[in-house]
Amino acid sequence: MDLWFTEHHSDNARFSMKVKEHIFSENSEFQKINILDTYEFGRVLVLDGFLMTTERDEFIYHDMITHVGMAVNPSIKKVLVIGGGDGGTVRELTRYSTIQEIHMVEIDEVVVDASKEYLGFTADRLSDERVTLYIEDGIRFVKESKEIYDLIIVDSTDPIGPGEGLFTTEFYNDCSQILGDNGILINQNESPYYSDTREQMIRATSRLKEVFPIVEVFQSHIPTYPSGHWIFGFASKSLHPIKDLKIEEWESFGLKTKYYNTALHQGAFALPTYVREMLK
Ligand code: SAM
């Protein structure tokens, strides 16, 4: 009998993929973790029934969550990643020889261990000597940290369960305290299409605006996320994502990226009218 994985994208819409093999399953202290091998999307990581990462389309998410900030400030040296247990964001960051320190704070060690074991395509750079992994709650880490970062990437689950506190004004305020004057915060900011994620996107964006003087959102097409239309937030005390984009400097890194490029960077901030209106 065929085995299918199905995610509920709304009360009335579902997204399914045919499963080759169920590779890993564990209930951690925080969430239910599954790794499947699928015909269309390769290996996939599922947390509490929601797709986090797939072998085929993870490059889109990880390019956009990493390179947009790096191209606005190519001098970034010290980075904090909150969440990101599959390792894909850290993998992209380690490609910059100019980055000196990467701190990753992931609440769930089981996600990290399972990703190292079964998702080598994203987790293969967690052993880079510039990476320090903290297994703890990112909310507490940011509140108590005395460090100053150039870039904070909030690579979280949705605002339910352990990820809920990563979408609050209080958390964004705490992030602002540990960001330098040219600091940038990038977050995965949900989707405008279905009603649940739409409300989450609107709320998170307006909370970012309560804290940061510059807040813009940018979009990308991620086939396995609800509706395929995904939004990221860009927040900074001083840098604008388009006016301060350093095209030549970023291109001089010579990084080969599969999705990101500096023309797309500029286009990604041009939003459909219905999205612009909901964020007014
Ligand atoms: N690409 C993904 C997406 O948007 O669907 C996100 C992937 S990553 C696996 C998300 C990680 O955030 C999970 O491993 C989860 O354990 C972690 N996480 C959730 N809440 C957290 C918290 N409060 N502190 C640190 N990590 C957290």
TrEMBL record:
A biological process term (GO) from this entry: spermidine biosynthetic process
EC main group: transferase
Record-annotated active site: 155 (proton acceptor)
Keyword annotations from UniProtKB, A to Z: Polyamine biosynthesis, Spermidine biosynthesis, Transferase
Domain PABS: 2-237
GO molecular function annotation: spermidine synthase activity
Residues given in the record as S-methyl-5'-thioadenosine binding sites: 31, 106, 137-138, 162
EC nos: 2.5.1.16
The keyword NAD appears for this protein: no
PROSITE patterns for this protein: PABS_1 (PS01330), PABS_2 (PS51006)
Binding locations of spermidine: 62, 86, 155-158
Record note on quaternary structure: Homodimer or homotetramer.
Family statement: Belongs to the spermidine/spermine synthase family.
Database matches in PANTHER family: SPERMIDINE SYNTHASE, SPERMIDINE/SPERMINE SYNTHASE
Protein name: Polyamine aminopropyltransferase
